[in-house]
Amino acid sequence: DKGGYPFYMEKEIMEQPRVIGETVKPRIKDGKPDFTAEGIPDEMLASCRRICVIACGTAMHAGLVGKSLIQSLIGIHVDVVMASEFMYNDPIVDKTTLVIAISQSGETIDTLEALKFARKCGSPSISIVNVKGASIARASEYVIYTNAGPEIAVASTKAYTTQLAVLYLLTARMAIARKLWSDEQMKEYMEELQRVPAVMEEVLKSKEEIHHIADTMLNARDVFMIGRGLDYSILLEGSLKLKEISYIHSEAYASGELKHGTIALITEETPVIAVVTQDKLKSKELSNIKEVQSRGARVILLIKGQEELEQEKIWSRIFRLPVMKDEFMVMPVSIVLQLIAYYVSLDKGLDVDKPRNLAKVVTVE
Ligand code: F6R
Predict the structure, then answer these.
(1) Chain centroid to CA 302: how far?
(2) Tens digit of pLDDT for each residue in 54-69?
(3) In 3-state terms, what secondary structure has residue 250?
(4) Measured in angstroms, how far is the CA atom of residue 359 from the centroid of ligand 1?
(5) Which atom of ligand 1 is nearest to the CA of 361?
(6) pLDDT averaged over the chain?
(7) Ligand 1, from 84, 236, 362, 365: best to mutate by most atoms within 8 Å of Cβ?
């Protein structure tokens, strides 16, 4: 049942406010994150010296957001490793390394094998899985389920944002286990997390505006997506989404790295999506954007809030994102990027839910 939408992907995009709520709400007690139902001991969150996230594709991109959160708000070193590469790089994991395996299906063989390897090395482990009772859930010490419900479209949307929701909760629980935040800081963070569904609804109401943005990319051969920090992490996911369902070559690039070679590829024909949501990075991001504009690129700007921009005319499109605290901005941005990929694929007349060459569950290494 596609819920009246032409494709499951659209239905699943639209479901996000609800399933984020269903993932977050049961894990809040007295305004604080709570994993008693999962049995996760605070001692484990307090004692690890580093964290290693193993995952593939979209789930790995969720891990990258988790890394930013945990490093900046908790101060523990986090590595995010592609599960398919994990064992071939002589990984250094031991009982002081908390391993977090992230997987929608819970059956991705690379992730499963990497997790088993880490457990043999003595690492404590938590998995974040969507499908109840899946192999990865069974192979890890503790499991936190994302309550996204079945995800049918091959391109992951609601599984990704619910994985993020769990990572926000886990970060806050780590702060409790390690006695790091003030009551005030905890309260503000948890209130912001609970505001995510409403903010997502707000973005979903701008569907048609986003559809018009997508239209400008229909005939593009290449698309670039640029940003720094968390904006870069979310663009990696947005770019994967566009590639897999629209077959347009797309690259997410850290804005500051462009001028070290890749900017040579940017021409007047290249749409560039630039995301600017992090206050402390804003002036640098805007000056990197000027560099691509001076190569003639048509820049689509996704920017937080209503701030005035010089020369509104030089932008191909501007989308104003609802305002959240910086560390939560990936949530509204991810909806915009999912919808862009969706509409490009839809308007090209492609099979959005079943892109060529891809399978929903990858059980070969
Ligand atoms: C992309 C996508 C894939 C999966 C990856 C891991 O939209 O869905 O990149 O994220 O194959 O799958 P899971 O999460 O099932 O381990």
Answers:
(1) 16
(2) 999 999 999 999 999 9
(3) strand
(4) 9
(5) 15
(6) 96
(7) 362
Q: Tell me, what's the pLDDT at 313? A: 67
- Residue 148, CA distances (Å) to 60, 64, 107, 232, 343 in order: 17, 20, 16, 25, 22
| Residue 213, helix vs strand vs coil | helix
Q: Tell which one of 7, 54, 56, 239 to mutate to probe ligand 1, the residue whose CB is within 8 A of the most ligand atoms.
A: 56
Given a cut of 70, is residue 160 above it in pLDDT? yes
DSSP letters spanning 137-193: HHHSSEEEE-------SSS-SHHHHHHHHHHHHHHHHHHHHTT-S-HHHHHHHHHHH
For residue 315, pLDDT beyond 90: no
- Average pLDDT over every residue of 148-172: 98
In tens, the pLDDT along 12-56 reads 999 999 999 999 999 999 999 999 999 999 999 999 999 999 999
Whether 232 and 238 have beta carbons less than 8 Å apart is answered as no
Looking up tokens 């500051």 gives 256
Q: From ligand 1's centre to the CA of 130, what distance in Å?
A: 11
Cα 23 to ligand 1 centre (Å): 19
* Mutational pocket test of ligand 1: of 61, 115, 136, 156, the residue with most ligand atoms within 8 Å of the beta carbon: 156
φ, ψ of residue 182 to 5 degrees: the values are: -75, 165
Question: Is the ipTM beyond the 0.95 threshold?
Answer: yes
Closest residue by Cα to atom 11, ligand 1, is 57
Are 117 and 92 in contact by the 8 Å Cβ rule? The answer is no
Sole residue written with tokens 């398919």: 84
Burial classification of residue 99, based on how many CB atoms lie within 10 Å of its CB (0-12 exposed, 13-18 middle, 19 or more buried): buried
**228-239 per-residue burial string, b: 16 or more CB within 10 A, e: under 16:** bbbbbbbbbbbb
Percentage of the chain with pLDDT > 90?
A: 89
pLDDT at 261 over 90: no
| pTM of structure | 0.97
CA angle 16, 190, 335 (to 5 degrees): 25
Cα gap 152→349, rounded to integer Å: 19
